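Before any further analysis, backbone shapes were mapped to integers, which produced the following:

***
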Amino acid sequence: MNFVYLIILLIITAGTLFNSIKWGRFAQREHYLPGSVTKFYFRWIRTKFINRFMFFISLILFVVSLWIYYVPLLVVCLTIFSPLGINFKSRTGEIVITERLKRVNYLYYSIVLLISLVSYLFGYGYIFALIINLFSFFIYDQCLRILQSYEKNISKVFVNDASLKLNSRTLPVVGITGSYSKTTTKNVLNQILQVKNKTFVTPESYNNRLGIAKAINENFQNEDEVAIIEMGTYSNGEIREICSWVRPHIAVITGIAPVHLERMKSLENILDAKSEIVELAGSVVINGDDDLLLNEARLWTNQKNVYDCSITSKDAAVYVEHKNNKHDIYIEGKFIDSVSGPKLLQLSISLSVGVLLALDLNVKEYFKNLNSLDKTEHRQNIIKSDYGHSIIDNSFNSNPMAIEYSLETLSELGTKNSKRYLITPGLIELGSDQFSINYAFATEASIIVDQALVVGYTNKRSLIAGFEENNTPVNWFINRDEAVAFLNSIVESDDIVLFENDLPDHYP
């Protein structure tokens, strides 16, 4: 191999190593799931014509590079800067250089360097290194797959420590899962229990195996009297594994909805995955307005205490009625007490009262001196901007169930002279229903909003179609920052702006 070919080989190798910055972000945002990097790479490729064109050109240039030695440099440039829209710097949150990410990167580096070394030693030129460069996203995915079992095994000690710490005490453990309102219900229950008890609560977003273990190891105290643990899942078996060492006494399921439908494929699969929380629990608290849960609950009633909690029916074990920012609480049709709070908390209050019943606590005692309950941050919080207009911040709570509350709040605020704006990238992870649900969202929002600002490529077509067909002015922006800059140039002080969802920056 002559010197020129060696230099080209080194440049190709360096470019492939550099791409790990992008793929590491994809992997970390998708919880290191094997296949996720390739899936999001091609999602970006499909979204923009320029990305499809660049991918096609890179394949052609690869073939040409078999005869023209400087062409691989063009391929490297294309793979570094494509897909367009993916920046090496994060927008919605910095990548965290964890030990796990380091291990994935080290394996990726080793594979890339080994292939380049073999190419050099055996005189193959740069051809194998260039193939790896073209498909570096796939190589990174294989590293995730190779390390998956190893990562689970080395984390067993960490999880076992958390299990011993949590189960060393005979305190009740409440596990909360569902397609929506998990965090809100956890926080509402915590506010209620703290009237008389010291509680341990998993922090926001710490709802998977390692997140829960980390929270317990770092924050659980011997003085804690109740543990409240939120559990999320991306696939069947995850909640069952968490419950095997958390061992919840009371299971709460907030509801079943087409959230993560892209991963779970059907509502029945989502129901099965969420229902794993029930297996070891003695009592089950469910959203009594969810038909899927009610039907499933018939299988549990012979072995467990089941509490159906409703916001629509006084016949439920717990019913909460909302009027004028006040929640009236009924147990088996009998009025118990009231507490102030926004409508968004109605279901969470109902489920929390169900937990109090399952714990055999005196509900009146807990609400006697509890005047009001607060929302979780970024869940329809209303704030004033520097420009004087009101902002409804629902950035982190977007799902088909929450939209109704968001739009209702938007319609209630302001005066007859106020303009109402919506900034949204739409809803994600809805599988085959994604287009129809986002189109329906735009149609429903058109009744209320004066102007819509659509962000990103992910739901561009469905949202714009919904707004345009209902004669609602709509503008499209490549990212949220551009949408906000445009809004600030036209908004007045008495206007209202709803921020509904904010895409992680690995989404188009």
In short: Residues 381-500 form a domain with the Protein-Tyrosine Phosphatase; Chain A fold (CATH 3.90.190.20). Residues 99-121 form the longest helix (23 residues). The first strand starts at residue 173 and ends at 177.
